[in-house]
Amino acid sequence: MICPLDFRYGRDKIKKIFDEESRLAYWLRVESALAKAHSHFGNIPKDSAEEIERKANLQYVKIERVKEIEKEIKHDVMAMVKALAEQCENGKYVHLGATSYDIVDTANALQIKDALSIIEIEMIKLLKNLANLSKKYRDAIMVGRTHAQHALPITFGLKMSVYASEIKRHLERMKKIKEEIAVGKMAGAVGTGAAFGEKFFEIQDYVMKQLGLKAEIPTTQIVGRDRYIELFSFLSNLSVSLEKFATEIRNLQRSEIAEVEEFFGERQVGSSTMPHKRNPVTCEQICGLARMVRSNLLPAWENAIQWHERDLCNSSSERFIIPHALILTDWILFKMNQVFENLKIDTEKMVENIELSKGLIFTEAIMMKLVEKGMNRQSAHEIMRQCAMEAKEKKKHLKEILMERKEILHKIEDIESLFNAEDYIGKAKEIVDLTLKNLRKDFPEIGV
User: Fold this and answer.
1) Beta bridge partners of 142
2) Tell me: the pLDDT tens digits for 35-94?
3) Whole-angstrom Cα distance, residue 362 to residue 177?
4) Radius of gyration of the chain (CA)
5) Cβ(438)–Cβ(427) below 8 Å
């Protein structure tokens, strides 16, 4: 085994969709639908079609036999066709009128559709986990950070509600992607359907209806790869969100911040040399594998560039990128759910960290109070900038500096009252409530 998907990453239920036997089973399923369509429109005898349908499965067509034939003829789809045909008395009707990529692209659509259904379930689970965290920590005040510096107070619930909304949008995109990718073709070598005769449209539609797909019209020899670009762009976009979430957990787990922490097992080892280490290894794995998901987007773009009605350049790379991108996306979703389900959150440390800036996170609040008391906004900003820089330079609390500024004392009597984080989180709690309301409306199954 060489590929880490074989022994380290990926869940069995989605990997099963893309293994050798399953790929063959999907191909046979398409061949079965084609035989049934031909029979329905009187192109082949009914009993011949029924035999093909009955034997177009792994019970009769063995992967070992297909490989044996392929080794001789150097063509995987034709090897499948021959292996199926030799199991049937009227094997001459197998694959009638079709070209290889009628089978491959239609089977691809079935495989991708099944894989996306697994991924969608995990996305809804992630949405629920994030919604639950939003609700539970609606009131948990913490420092908001921009440029990795203390900015203004927020709540952890608000942070989680932002993530939940992002996953909601991805689920909405998923609906479009499932429609975009659920197309097949049965149109022959250059997309004209010539080998199917006068009943081409009917045969193609009949095949696709059996398989739960739509027929793409028009096509060349293959389904348009702009559809695959949409798929890989979606998976890349989703992977960016997951890496963003994981990166935030990693940052908040820094020793000097320590506001959240990945679950760490009782016997888990963090380092081979430093016994004290409790590293955010799951989030780091998510980040690394998310980059692998996105790396598959480039060949998907390149594969859309075909010579004339098609060449074979897409075939080899798609054998890698389709299963890898889908299996890894499912895996990092699964791991992200584990992180959020078991996340340790230290609200006391969040409150403690608010004090680290010695009042500097309240400069905007005080500026707005000065404006409220009649001071020019630009003037108020400059005064607070000066005070903030002085406090930082002298390593003093901002209150001490403000107490020395007469123009501020003239406007604000109770300086102390302005340094309460609870009073300057705006409508953070209400934003969480509204977000959860919107999530419940569109996804009642999350149950928050």
Assistant:
1) 154
2) 999 999 999 999 999 999 999 999 999 999 999 999 999 999 999 999 999 999 999 999
3) 45
4) 30
5) no
pLDDT in tens, 202-224: 999 999 999 999 999 999 999 99
Max Cα-Cα span within the chain: 102
Q: For residue 243, is pLDDT > 90? A: yes
Strand partners, 345: 260
Show the tokens assigned to 21.
Answer: 């036997």
Please count the other Cβ atoms lying within 10 Å of the Cβ belonging to residue 395. 7
pTM: 0.94
**Residue 286 to residue 284: CA distance in whole angstroms:** 5
For 163, the enclosing helix (H) or strand (E) is: helix 156-181
Say which residues have a Cβ less than 8 Å from residue 376's Cβ, sequence separation at least 6.
none
| Vertex 351 angle, CA 137 and 131, to 5° | 15
Task: Output the pLDDT for position 394.
Answer: 95
* Residue 176 CB burial class (10 angstroms; 0-12, 13-18, ≥19): exposed
What would the pLDDT profile of 305-339 be if each residue is shown by its tens digit? 999 999 999 999 999 999 999 999 999 999 999 99
Residue 253 per-residue DSSP state:
T
Rounded distance between C-alpha atoms, residue 373 and residue 23, angstroms: 72
Contact 211, 182 (CB under 8 A): no
What domains, with CATH codes, occur in the chain?
18-96 (1.10.275.10), 360-418 (1.10.40.30)
Report the catalytic residues.
Answer: 147, 271
Tell me, letter by letter, the H, E, C secondary structure of 273-311.
CCCCCCCCHHHHHHHHHHHHHHHCHHHHHHHCCCCCCCC
* Residues contacting residue 210 through CB under 8 Å, at least 6 positions apart: 33, 36, 37
Q: Are 15 and 327 in contact (CB under 8 A)?
A: yes
Phi, psi at 277, each rounded to 5°: -70, 135
